[in-house]
Design goal:
This protein is α/β, with parallel strands linked by helices. Helix content is 36%, strand content 22%.
Length: 347
């Protein structure tokens, strides 16, 4: 089924930024602003590269994860995967966030309960707070453009779905920086949700040609399970086959959730909202009514942290679509880089 309701700003951005869409004329109007924005970003990077502005070090070894575009790449699932990787090796990670939106800290606390999660626009101050709570290694979520803070490993995330987007920078396209910014990356991770494995591999090869000395990995962000929002009961994906599903997603790329749910054989209606959508009372009422008509309501973890405490007890509970990071190319290279950071903890 087609996208229902949703957020008009999100739909406008998707229309404008699709390379094969009808927004070419509008993009041309926005091109001067995009060129100015690109010049400012290059100048800013040059200032830090030439040490004209100070770069502060953090009190523990740090891994930074970020993207070149405005969300939807899977940096948060990847940052959580890295934190779990360190937990499995007996270290307590501290996850440092910008604090924008308010939901990502709750998401990380749910995904990695062993981690210290700190949301603070000042990452140095946030690192000090994490250190005081026992963090041994730091993971900076959404930090590729954070040039004022040093890191031991800099990971750039590029989604395979972004290959369908305009190559213009903001506001004519979805890009914060051009691909030349990948010179700052110690590792590049190509992610895919709805894109094919072939599309992800093709993008990885293009990036590897541009950055032959930088490891390029591919990670599939796949649906792993369904979890009851209130009960925590886990279900297999086969539960959705042939069922009517109302999917609600206030994330940067809500269509990817619908594509993944349809792959289970479900008949999906999508309510697409803007990233970090706050869910007003009217939105909640709409979902509750939808739950009465559909077989299941399926949401993301980012939506669940805003709905869990407000969902009526007499309405069928939504199911949370859990994502797993599955390495499809060069995952061992990233693990080696993460281990190298971990080796510095003991020094």
């Amino acid at each position: 089924m087609s996208v229902a309701g949703g957020n008009s700003v999100h739909r406008l951005a998707r229309w404008l930024w699709r390379r094969d869409g009808g927004g070419q004329v509008v993009r041309l109007v926005l091109a001067p602003a995009a060129l100015l924005y690109a010049a400012v970003m290059r100048l800013r990077a040059a200032v830090y590269r030439r040490a004209l502005r100070p770069v502060r070090r953090l009190p523990r070894p740090a891994v930074a994860v970020g993207n070149l575009s405005v969300g939807g790449t899977g940096k948060t699932p990847l940052a959580a995967w890295i934190a779990r990787y360190y937990v499995a090796r007996g270290r307590r990670p501290g996850i440092l966030l910008r604090g924008v939106g308010g939901d990502e800290a709750l998401v990380h606390r749910h995904l990695v309960p062993e981690a210290v999660v700190v949301a603070d626009p000042d990452r140095v101050a946030g690192a000090a707070r994490a250190l005081a709570q026992g963090a041994e290694v730091l993971v900076l979520d959404d930090a590729f453009q954070l040039l004022s803070v040093a890191r031991d490993l800099n990971i750039a995330v590029v989604s395979a779905e972004s290959a369908e987007s305009s190559r213009w920078l903001l506001p004519a396209g979805p890009w914060r920086e051009g691909w030349d910014a990948l010179e700052r990356a110690d590792a590049i991770v190509v992610t895919r949700k709805s894109a094919s494995r072939e599309a992800a591999d093709a993008l990885a090869r293009r990036l590897a040609e541009r950055r032959p000395r930088t490891p390029v990995c591919v990670a599939g962000l796949t649906l792993d399970c369904l979890e009851g929002m209130q009960s925590g009961t886990r279900h297999g994906l086969d539960r959705l086959a042939g069922r009517r599903v109302l999917a609600a997603a206030g994330i940067a790329d809500p269509e990817s959730l619908a594509v993944q749910l349809r792959a289970t054989g479900a008949d999906v209606q999508l309510l697409a909202y803007q990233d970090h959508h706050r869910y007003a009372d009217d939105d909640l009422a709409r979902l509750v009514r939808g739950a009465a008509r559909a077989d299941y309501v399926v949401i993301t973890e980012k939506d669940a942290v805003k709905l869990r405490g407000r969902w009526p007890g007499d309405a069928p509970e939504p199911l949370i679509a859990g994502l797993a990071v599955r390495w499809e190319r060069n995952g061992a290279a990233l693990e080696q880089a993460l281990d190298a950071v971990l080796a510095r903890v003991a020094r």
